[in-house]
Each structure stands twice: as structure tokens, then as C-alpha cells.
Amino acid sequence: MSIAKKRGLGKGLSALLNDDRPAGAAGSDDRAIVGDPSRRLLPVSFLERNPDQPRTRFDTVAIEELTASVKEKGVLQPILVREIGEDRYQIVAGERRWRAAQKAGIHDVPVVVRDLSDTEVLELGLIENIQREDLTPIEEAKAFKRLMQEFGHTQEVLSDIVGKSRSHVANLLRLLTLPVTVQILVDDGKLTMGHARALIGVKNAEIIAQEIIAKGLSVRQTEALAAEDKGNKPRTIAAARARRSANKDADTIALEKDLSAAIGMKVSIDHQGEGGDIVIKYASLEELDDLCGKLGVCGL
Predict the structure, then answer these.
(1) Do 157 and 123 contact (CB within 8 A), yes or no?
(2) Residue pLDDT tens, the chain, 300 long
(3) What domains are defined for the chain?
(4) 95 catalytic, yes or no?
(5) Which residues form the ParB-like N-terminal domain (predicted)?
(6) Which of 64, 65, 95, 156 is catalytic?
(7) What is the pTM assigned to this prediction?
(8) Of 101, 110, 93, 89, which is closest to residue 28 (Cα–Cα)?
């Protein structure tokens, strides 16, 4: 049975921390706090990060803000650890607090020591990070995938454990079908999850991704590009218009206006390589007949 089922991690870390009081309120060494052998103050140098930590990026600004808070108030929530050797403790949850404590010059931090297996540590670390909601969509998707592959969780079980909808879990997992280069752009914050979802299953996803960034395209415009790449018509008229407008420069737009003014009808120009299309819209048969006259051809 998984740790999630045994210890109720769907409700957060409180089931393991049993923490209903301020941490770090007593003691200054590594002895048990207030008679509880699991609660201690340990030197930050005794703690080590978990190499299987699912979070690969730490926001610099967020760490600086947490550091300022730690300097003023200390570490208010204990760090969950397990003992791995003499004066060696591996962080299970709370690496950001540990990093901030080091930057703040704090020598001792409050911890809760638990006897956890490698499997339990991995599962707990994945779930804790997902629940914090500050992973990138790709990091979260990879965490979901590991929970399914290594612990046999279904999408439905995962949605219950982490408090997310099943559709959210499914949509994130689909992001992992994107090319790695596109996943990196999502990780870097250059593409939103909405952009990324529109590119799923698109043959030229990498090329379109670069176009999105270069032109600052919206999700709707991205959907239109993706639909065209798949050989389908854009999903909506609005999306088609957005696609055309996104590719038009100022000279083309000005020419459209001049032609429209000259013939009294709306003109649209769509460049396609060296050539392209000119579309003239008429509102009635009388307007069409008038256009034929201006062009010197027989009318209706």
C-alpha cells in the first residue's frame, strides 16, 4: 500500500508533521524538543537535499522573499527529514525553507524526523510539490507520470490525492507528448499551458512555438495555426481572422484600406510565399455588378 493511502497525504503534510504549534519554539541543539524525539533543532549543515526532488527550478525572487521572512521570524514550519547516517539527514519536504535559512545565516532549523523508505520519500516528495502548486506545468506532469508508473496510481486516484480534477491531470500528462524543445519553452515560462495544449499532436510544433514567441501570439491565434498545420480549417471565424491579422504587416493593411476605399468594398490580402490571394466581399448582387463594371467586364 502506498504512503498516500496509509498516511492520508491528500490532506497535506500535517498527517506526518503532527504540527499544531509553532516550530522552533524551544531548544538550540539536536536534542528532542519538549519530549518529542521526532521534533528537533538541527544544524543546517546536517541536512542534505533529496536527489529525487521533483522540483528542478527554484524561483530566485521567491527564495529572496522567504529569506527575508526567515531573517525576521525564523523558520516557522519544521522541515520533514529522514536520517540517512551519522549527522546526516535527507530533506523530504521543505527544501525552500532550508535554502532560505542558509541564505539568512540561520545555524539551526526545526525538523521532524520520520522513518521513511526510499519509495515513501519519493512519493511524498512528488505529492507535496504538486500540492504546493508552484511547479511548472511540465514539472507537475512529470511528477504525475512518475506517480502513475512507479506507484500504480490511476488518474482518478491521483486527482483525489492531490486535490486536482481528473481532466487537469489528463491535460498535464498530454503535455509530455510535445517535443522536448517545446517542453523546455513551457518550463522557461515562454509558452503558457494554453499555448502548449494547442500544439499537442501538431507536426510542426517546434516551428510554430518559435513563431508564437516571436510574434506574441495569443492562445486563440495559436489554435488557428495548429489547426492549419493539421490540415483542418481554423476552429472559428474569429480564429481565422486572428491568424490572418497576425501575419499582416503595416504596408499590407494600408494597401487593403486603399483598395477598399477605391472600389467601395472590403478587400482582404493574404500573402502565401511569393503570391497570395485577394478577397473582395460584396453585400449584394448590385455591388457585384458594380464591381464588374469597374473592372471592365460584363455584369450580371
Answers:
(1) no
(2) 444 444 444 444 445 555 444 333 333 344 444 456 678 899 999 999 887 766 666 777 878 888 898 888 888 889 989 999 999 999 988 888 898 999 999 899 999 998 888 777 777 777 776 766 567 889 888 888 888 887 788 888 888 877 778 888 888 999 999 999 999 999 888 999 899 999 998 988 999 999 999 989 998 889 888 888 776 554 444 455 555 555 677 778 888 888 888 888 888 887 766 777 788 887 777 778 788 777 776 555
(3) 3-132 (3.90.1530.10), 178-246 (no CATH), 250-295 (no CATH)
(4) yes
(5) 40-130
(6) 95
(7) 0.51
(8) 110
